[in-house]
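Retry 2 of 3 after timeout on previous attempt. Resubmitting structure tokens to design endpoint.
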């Protein structure tokens, strides 16, 4: 908006009787979402998918009212003056009730609390209508995304191939078809597929390499349950990022929580917060596809460290030594192939969104964890990439991943996050939007004409200190350009 019209726009908003919206409606529903994850549990991929549904729905609703960014699917019709708070709350409620109907009473209570704070009945009801419509559109778009696909997994009986792990050796592979589900922003799950471990495309090549032996020996030492080389801080790092157990908010929840912490710290508005949470949701939703495509849809379904170390006598690598009773720090290994790391892919995609959104990597923030072993621990980071790198490395200290799983995941997750930020939910620039309603129409033209003929300096659109025909031509060009993505 042109600087001189800020006061005018504010006056117009006040004159319209716009309801004040608390900027924490997104945070409130994120807390509800975290409680949902803790209650329902499950694997990270379906949780990331549902997290995206909730927050993209909220964004679509709020953004349909203020139109400050490109929509994901499209703007929802707004029947009249509408409360953004009511729209966001209704969208989250609709999404969660549909996804988790057994918890409907909990969601109903939270919705009632938010709606009670919107005193203008017309704006409240219009906001609810927008929120419901936005969530219904996202739910319909994802109703055939094939995330419930459960193909039969066929174990390959060769050294290096994924196999069941301790303690019970019976847990079936988790979500073997997830890498083939409908992407949120990619063309297909293999769009950002990382190279094979150490650049190899065959398991036998991986196992014979010196780098493989070095990394087996690294996790054997640092990731062992009774390790004498892992430091106290490394053990803390291992547990801090874990959140593997049901009852925690899992990796997608932890990254969403970090997002709301930074959003509050940076003073984001409601619309900015909604857009950021939606971008993070899209990135985490597709990060699951990137990791699970590599895990299951290539020729390298790499075994977990516990299998590699206990079966080192058959890996055809003289630099490794079998230790048949070796156990990782974590009491179980997540039931899917090691390469690449889901944690690290999620973390890298999240960091890429955060860097792009704030225009810098160097923001200091303090994060927490749900992992019961270190539940009261907080860690402070000076950049998003520092946190993401530590997230990936934590899996080595936990004994469930090789370093290459984290390194390649960081690369592919970063590419994914950068691509999503460049191409989706882009902010819209409206220089000719003089009344601040994020639309360019006759009302803006009338404001400009009045200012122009009054010789008001706010009509000086070419900034040369004189109001003349040149300014009118600049305004006309901007007017016909309308609103465009930045």
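Retry 2 succeeded. Sequence:
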């Amino acid at each position: 908006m042109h600087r001189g019209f800020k006061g005018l726009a504010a006056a117009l908003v006040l004159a319209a009787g716009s309801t004040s919206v608390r900027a924490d409606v997104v945070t409130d529903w994120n807390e509800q979402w975290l409680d949902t994850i803790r209650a329902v549990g499950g694997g990270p991929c379906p949780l990331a998918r549902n997290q995206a549904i909730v927050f993209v729905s909220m964004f679509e609703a709020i953004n349909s009212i203020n139109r400050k960014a490109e929509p994901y699917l499209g703007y929802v019709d707004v029947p009249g003056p509408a409360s953004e708070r009511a729209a966001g709350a209704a969208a989250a409620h609709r999404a969660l009730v549909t996804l988790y109907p057994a918890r409907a009473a909990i969601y109903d209570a939270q919705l009632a609390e938010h709606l009670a704070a919107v005193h203008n009945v017309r704006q409240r009801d219009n906001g609810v209508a927008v929120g419901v419509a936005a969530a219904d559109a996202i739910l319909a778009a994802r109703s055939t995304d094939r995330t419930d696909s459960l193909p039969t997994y066929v174990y390959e009986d060769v050294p290096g191939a994924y196999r069941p792990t301790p303690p019970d050796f019976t847990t079936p592979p988790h979500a073997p078809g997830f890498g083939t589900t409908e992407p949120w922003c990619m063309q297909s799950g293999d769009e950002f597929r990382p190279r094979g471990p150490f650049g190899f495309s065959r398991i036998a090549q991986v196992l014979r390499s010196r780098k493989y032996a070095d990394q087996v020996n690294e996790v054997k030492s640092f990731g062992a349950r009774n390790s004498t080389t892992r430091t106290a801080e490394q053990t803390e790092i291992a547990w801090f990022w874990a959140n593997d157990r049901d009852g925690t908010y899992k990796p997608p929840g932890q990254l969403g929580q970090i997002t709301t912490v930074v959003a509050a710290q940076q003073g984001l508005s409601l619309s900015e917060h909604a857009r950021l949470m939606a971008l993070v949701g899209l990135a985490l939703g597709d990060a699951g596809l990137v990791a699970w495509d590599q895990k299951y849809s290539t020729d390298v379904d790499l075994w977990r460290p516990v299998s590699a170390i206990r079966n080192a006598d058959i890996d055809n690598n003289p630099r490794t030594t079998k230790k048949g009773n070796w156990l990782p720090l974590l009491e179980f290994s997540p039931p899917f192939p090691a390469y690449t790391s889901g944690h690290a892919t999620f973390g890298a995609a999240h960091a890429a969104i955060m860097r792009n959104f704030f225009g810098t990597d160097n923001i200091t923030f303090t994060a927490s964890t749900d992992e019961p072993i270190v539940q009261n621990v907080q860690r402070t980071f000076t950049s998003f990439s520092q946190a993401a790198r530590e997230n990936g490395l934590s899996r080595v200290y936990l004994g469930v991943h090789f370093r290459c799983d984290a390194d390649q995941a960081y690369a592919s997750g970063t590419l994914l996050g950068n691509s999503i930020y460049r191409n989706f939910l882009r902010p819209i620039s409206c220089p000719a939007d003089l009344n601040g309603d994020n639309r360019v129409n006759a009302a803006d033209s009338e404001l400009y004409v009045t200012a122009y003929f009054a010789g008001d300096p706010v009509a000086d659109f070419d900034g040369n200190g004189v109001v003349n025909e040149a300014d009118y031509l600049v305004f006309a060009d901007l007017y016909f350009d309308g609103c465009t993505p930045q």
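Attempt log closed. The first helix runs from residue 6 to 15.
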